[in-house]
Write a structure and sequence with these properties.
- The protein is 14% helix and 33% strand.
- It is built from six helices and 25 strands.
Length: 376
């Protein structure tokens, strides 16, 4: 009848679905432990059986992961291997412990194999079959995977579509040399130079390029892996120095590679800093527009690996495109995202000097910071 309000009775399961998060529900039901914290030591994190991969594993849900990315580990027993796998999400693998190999089967029958160890970085072309092997008969192999499955599964909410799809992405298979650890360098400008490949045997000695704008003699390189949309870069902090504070969108997963130190995280209105200590194997992610700053307190250069969705080739997100265009290393006074040394909270440098005194390493920031002003 016209004008009469129809009353809907909720009497089916479909009607009752509300505010669903398919990725969180999926990971909770998969079997391995789910760890959630501001920062996680992935090497020490408990693992458990993961039937899908036929090995042990753990989900690593850091608080600043945002909506697009997350991480897990695969813990492969001595002499064992994962189940054959293919999927419609992009994986970025980082070697944590032990040594292994990976086999990638291309649709034309070509098979590529490469070996990895601690601090290796590799990916698999989208939806291409692969298998990971532990090369040791006595020690476990632990590899971390940072991925965009939260975005993919939340978008399609159908795991069959993601894990049982046979579509071939020919354009992503890449040059055969990419599976041998070789690649192609594309110069752009400091902070944006790109290395295209599929596999980096060792991040500890990979050539980096100076990024003066980020401060204190730091250097980096950006990776484009398997023509994907995931971003990865490695940055280095020289001995006895630290980088400038900056901020960006959520979801940038940071893995400590070499050295040791800590990072400070804060929002503009915060009175105190959140401190995250790190060495190889630690993972954390600054939250949306949360300032963060990285400090090297070790006697060696400190490198870290940052992984997120949206890269130099395929930004995907507006804040990524804006950052690449110039906001990343421009001062916040000029509308950018970076805190220049002269504008940072004086407590930041004082704390670092205290930490350096504890470490026994002589600080080397006088070229960039007026330390005499701090003493007054």
């Amino acid at each position: 009848m016209i004008g009469k309000k129809k009353v809907h009775v909720f009497d089916t399961d479909r009607d009752k679905k509300f505010l669903l998060e398919p990725y969180n529900d999926w990971s909770a039901a998969e079997g391995p432990p789910v760890h959630e914290d501001f920062a996680i030591n992935a090497i020490d994190a408990e693992t458990g059986p993961w039937p899908r991969f036929d090995c042990k594993g753990a989900f690593l849900h850091v608080h600043g992961r945002g909506d697009y990315c997350s991480a897990y580990t695969l813990d492969i027993d001595p002499g064992k291997k994962t189940a054959p796998m293919r999927h419609l999400y992009e994986p970025m693998f980082y070697g944590l412990e032990g040594h292994g190999s990976t086999i990638v089967d291309l649709p034309n029958g070509t098979r590529h194999s490469f070996e990895w160890g601690p601090k290796s970085l590799f990916t698999i072309p989208l939806n291409t079959p692969y298998q990971i092997f532990n090369g040791s008969g006595t020690e476990r192999a632990l590899v971390a995977c940072t991925h965009d499955l939260p975005f993919t599964l939340n978008l399609y909410h159908d795991e069959g579509f993601i894990f049982e799809n046979d579509f071939v992405f020919e354009q992503r298979l890449g040059d055969p040399k990419y599976y041998d650890g070789d690649g192609d360098f594309t110069p752009i400008k400091p902070g944006r130079h790109m290395w295209e490949t599929t596999y980096v045997p060792d991040l500890t000695n990979f050539e980096l390029h100076t990024w003066v704008e980020r401060g204190a003699g730091g250097a980096n390189i950006v990776f484009v892996l398997a023509d994907g949309t995931m971003h990865a870069h490695v940055s280095e902090i020289p001995v006895a120095r630290y980088k400038k504070g900056h901020r960006h969108g959520a979801g940038v997963h940071i893995w400590a590679v070499t050295g040791s130190g800590y990072s400070l995280l804060w929002y503009e209105a915060d009175q105190d800093f959140l401190e995250v200590p790190w060495t190889h194997g630690w993972l954390y992610a600054p939250a949306e527009q949360q300032f963060h700053q990285h400090f090297n307190t070790s006697p060696d250069p400190a490198r870290y690996l940052a992984i997120s969705l949206g890269n130099r080739r395929y930004p995907l997100l507006k804040h990524k495109r804006d950052g690449i265009a110039g906001e990343t290393d421009a001062s916040i006074k000029e509308g950018g995202r970076q805190v220049e040394y002269e504008d940072q909270d004086p407590r930041i440098h004082k704390k670092w000097l205290e930490e350096m005194a504890k470490s026994g390493v002589a600080p080397d920031m006088a070229e960039y910071i007026d330390e005499s002003a701090l003493a007054s």
